[in-house]
Specification:
heterodimer; A: alpha/beta; B: alpha+beta; 2 domains; seven-stranded mixed sheet
Chain lengths: 101, 486
């Protein structure tokens, strides 16, 4: 007979080893007042017809003076690869994070 | 008969703590049931709420009563009078039970003495969790949650808390266990940590000592070393900020260094000994995390050196022909102490042919001349770690520590013409005004002699220093105190 062991997902904590002069969580940057002149990344998560929506979004963004860079995840079932996240981080000023299904 | 009177958290009366999973407790169980009728004793059972049979029992299910009353053995009998504990009997001792209950023939037929069993509250599988539960509120460090999908080792890297090697996650349980290594309170401030000048608490040191991989018995040594490096004399801020490749070199002395298993022998400056590696690492992690001294920020070393991860070792005092470095620096013999020195990586002096002290000291002096640069005198100290086979040459000739240092200095008097700028085809050197003078390579107390190393090998090691004295760093010796009692 096989016993399936289930684990309870309890929270794990460690004690902060620092002087605690910095916040423990990173703060979100202030939102830009305008997108004009900024590079906006659009990530296609590879779901069907996501590109149709993003094409529309791109036209709107270009219309307000933004530059758009398009990215695509290999599959929507897995998190974006580290390299792709890194590429977005270094090449864009703004990311619009959203999911539509 | 125990006679120490301490305040008790228990009400007045006689209290007995037992567990069923203990043969001594089972043996005295019928007595306890009788004593409850005759003497109104209170019985606490750690495991089985219905033990002893027929008695009225308080089930110490969370072991809080056992914990707060420091029960290490069951059965334990505690008598409380006017709020103070006046008697404590550990295990079964017929004469003591007879005295406490005023029943000369108590336990007739039982052996006169039978030791008890370990209390569940000190069970190795439970004690860390209990300490965290009952004493964890003493800790004030921010609790940082590791996300459910986050690997905990990676999480600590990601937060910038490591020296580039993995660290042990500093959970509350581990930090509480670490704090048992010192009698100081977690909130005690032992130093002001540079470069951010942060009040350095014992708790923050313990957190970093856990991360470094220390055992609790190392903690007093870590604290002593941090006290030493955080002095104005040692100047940790400058040691960090300099572009030179130096860090705190920690030399441990005294019987405690041997008791905690430090290495003073084979591969003494190398890897492989937990105490040597983790004490030095804990000091560096504390300066990094609490003080804020990180490479590329305040730490501006052009090259650095591998010992900035950890550079800590013990003197070989037992095999030494000399007094120890600590004693030479004013510490009483057989006293635990650390000496910190702002040093660079070690280099070897090979002399396998010298059989007289004069020959050997001349070789050592010739190599010491090259510390930093052969033409730069007085600005740098040096630590000379003499191996046992070299020290034997001096010991057999009856040369004391002072004699060796004196003979080194005598061979390190430099002629101005040899060291002025431009001489011998080297631009580096001293100002022209020193040309007609003789200048000592080291200041009078600038050579620190330590005996350590493996028994085979005619070698010694030189650890060059950083800018010496008030303009740079002064070696500092600090006693190791407040060793934990639990």
């Amino acid at each position: 007979m096989t016993t399936i062991k289930t684990t309870v997902n309890t929270a794990r904590f460690v004690l902060d080893p620092t002087s605690e002069q910095n916040p423990s969580q990173r703060q979100i940057l202030a939102r830009p007042s305008s997108l004009k002149g900024l590079t906006v990344g659009l990530l296609d998560i590879s779901k069907a017809r996501g590109d149709v929506f993003l094409d529309q979004l791109e036209r709107r963004l270009v219309g307000v003076g933004a530059t758009v860079k398009r990215f695509r995840k290999p599959t929507f079932t897995k998190p974006a690869p580290v390299d792709l996240r890194h590429e977005i981080a270094i090449s864009c000023n703004v990311v619009i994070e959203a999911l539509a299904d | 008969m125990p006679s120490v009177v301490t305040q008790s958290t228990l009400p007045d009366g006689v209290h007995v703590i037992v567990k069923r999973d203990c043969a001594t407790c089972v043996m005295v169980a019928p007595l306890l049931t009788q004593l409850q009728s005759s003497h109104s004793i209170t019985i606490y059972s750690q495991d089985d709420a219905s033990f002893p049979d027929g008695a009225e029992v308080i089930h110490d299910a969370d072991l809080s009563i056992s914990w707060h009353n420091n029960i290490e053995t069951v059965p334990t009998v505690i008598k409380v009078v006017n709020g103070a504990e006046t008697e404590r009997i550990v295990g079964w001792l017929q004469n003591e039970w007879a005295h406490t209950f005023d029943l000369p023939n108590i336990g007739d037929g039982l052996p006169a003495y039978r030791p008890g069993c370990g209390s569940l509250s000190v069970d190795p599988d439970k004690v860390d969790a209990l300490r965290a539960k009952f004493e964890g509120s003493l800790l004030v460090s921010r609790r940082v949650e590791i996300a459910s999908l986050e690997d905990e080792m990676e999480a600590l890297f990601a937060r910038g808390w490591t020296d580039g090697l993995p660290v042990v996650p500093p959970t509350q349980e581990r930090v509480m266990r670490m704090l048992a290594g010192t009698s100081l309170a977690p909130s005690d401030i032992v130093a002001i940590a540079p470069p951010d000048l942060v009040e350095l608490t014992v708790e923050k040191i313990a957190v970093n000592a856990v991360m470094a991989g220390c055992l609790p018995e190392y903690l007093p040594w870590v604290i002593a070393a941090l006290k030493a490096v955080c002095t104005d004399e040692f100047n940790m801020h400058g040691v960090l900020a300099t572009t030179m490749p130096v860090g705190p070199v920690i030399v441990c002395s005294g019987p405690g260094s041997r008791a905690i298993g430090m290495n003073s022998g084979v591969n003494v400056l190398g890897q492989g000994n937990r105490a040597n590696m983790t004490i030095g690492r804990a000091v560096q992690l504390t300066i990094r995390n609490v003080g804020g001294g990180r490479p590329g920020e305040i730490d501006r070393a052009a090259h650095g050196m591998p010992g900035k991860l950890s550079f800590c070792f013990a003197e070989d005092e037992i095999g030494s022909p000399w007094t120890s470095l600590a004693v030479a620096r004013g510490v009483e013999a057989d006293t635990d102490a650390v000496t910190v020195f702002a040093g660079e990586g070690p280099r070897c002096v090979t002399d396998q042919l010298a059989r007289t002290p004069e020959q050997l000291v001349t070789s050592l002096a010739a190599t010491l001349l090259t510390v930093e640069h052969p033409k730069l005198p007085l600005a740098y100290d040096a630590m000379l770690v003499v191996g046992p086979e070299h020290a034997r040459v001096f010991g057999e000739a009856g040369w004391s520590r002072e004699r060796v240092i004196e003979e080194l200095h005598a061979r390190l008097q430099l002629k101005g013409t040899d060291i002025v700028r431009g001489s011998h085809g080297m631009a580096e050197g001293v100002l022209q005004k020193y040309e007609q003078l003789t200048v000592s390579k080291f200041r009078p107390n600038g050579i620190l002699l330590v005996h350590a190393g493996g028994g085979a090998g005619l070698f010694s090691e030189i650890i060059g220093g950083w800018a010496s004295g008030a303009v740079g760093s002064e070696p500092v010796t600090q006693l190791v105190t407040n060793v934990g009692t639990r």
